[in-house]
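Archive entry: two folds, one per protein. Generate the first.
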Amino acid sequence: MTEQSEFVREQGKTSAEDAIGKKRSKPNGYAHSSSGFYFTINAWLARDLPQPDFLMGEWASTTSRGLLVSDTGLGKTNFCLALAFAMALGRDFLHWKSGRPCRVLYIDGEMSRRLMKTRLADAARRAGAAPETLFVLSRDDLPDMPPINTEEGQRFIDELIDAIGEVDFAFFDNVQALIPGDMKDEEPWQQTLPWIRDLTRRAIGQLWIHHTGHDTTRSYGTKTREWQLDTVILLEAAERPDADIAFALKFTKARERAPDNRGDFDKVTIALADDRWRFEGAALRAGKPPSPNGRKFHDALLDAIVSSPTFATAAGRALASTGWNYSAPNGSPATAILYGRYGSIADRLRDASATAPQPFRRN
């Protein structure tokens, strides 16, 4: 039986308040009136809703809608292309963890195709790969492409998505180039918004790229553009003489921010230096605590590891192969694998790697 079929229907009521008042004691927690459905708190808490399909950090998912705002010349297209490459390849990028490889569509409405080819070559070189699941459209190849705030323009993009076969995430670079009109006027965005919501229903995440104006601390034009978005990212100039590109990135809106993922939304300084993207300023992400069963499995795995006579040798070789020369204080490379995360367990591992292995039992 569906959730809607479980609603208690109330006929003939003249107001939502009347219907809710009559239905408060219903055990299933639902009420209905001619004005719509209403959920009690207990009904909400009992709902089985899918979790987001995160693609990069816990801010970009197949159902997220975001806006990235920057002054001209800060490098937002270079940055967004690097992000798109990482998402398509399923790789971590800067301080964000990848969710999985995905299919990405990048629509550029401003740059010449010659410059776009150069930007893509640069991004591919830095990534060391050219992902087959990243699709790039330049409006310079399609000068008659209809604006996205029209039915014809939206149908054009929908047909492109159908031709690709499936898209998990789309970049729109940028609002002014793809949605013509007065950016101070709400109408062009309002004409686009129903289609934006439809993309969300179809599990196509979005990042819309936009400019600032004379005030470089906010997006240019109407503020209502941000109201139905999940994230708003602001890039601000940063001084890095050694870098080709440098800016501070901060989230001015972050609906998915929570205590266990706050590091994903930290303000960071990002730079492109020596042909590599780098960052500084993000806190280490603590992550969610493991479940009780997960902790039991983890303890059993540690017991098995330190009982192996080949553990110290294998661990040392593994660390050496990565080029990591870190060792815990007074410990072997084997100890360094788990040092600092498991506290006193690391001391036990140090002893186990230096002497004949003994059965390991946790206090």
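Generate the second and append.
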Amino acid sequence: MANHAKANKHLAAAAKHSKAGNARLAQHHAFLAARALSSGQQDGSPSGDSTDEPDADDMGGPSDNDQDNQDNQGADHGGGMDGNGNGHFIQSAIKHPGALHRELGVPQGQTIPAKKVEQAAHSSNPTLAKRARLAETLKRLRGK
């Protein structure tokens, strides 16, 4: 299959997955389309596939080989893990404990008022805003 045809196939699959709300597969197919265009094979010969048929993993089913998935090895894709595989991702999300208290001028042992956290979430300081949004998220998680 020519590189452009293969890229068009992957772009169509990316659009289908994007419309269905599956961002991970849409991104994967967009990556495969870019790789097909940049592979450098201009003679129209296949780029590793022995047939023009799409692989099972190109269709979202189980994979018969891991060639398409090798590019994602070692990447942390969330899933409740902190990169070490132990499921404590929130502990690794808090890089500077107490920083929000210091930035808002609230002593460490006291609760930060919700109004202050909400105002900080809309701050022009991106670091302060991120910390405040994380605090709001953690507050909602605590209630469960």
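Annotation attached to the second fold: The mean pLDDT is 74. The chain has two domains: 3-72, 89-142.
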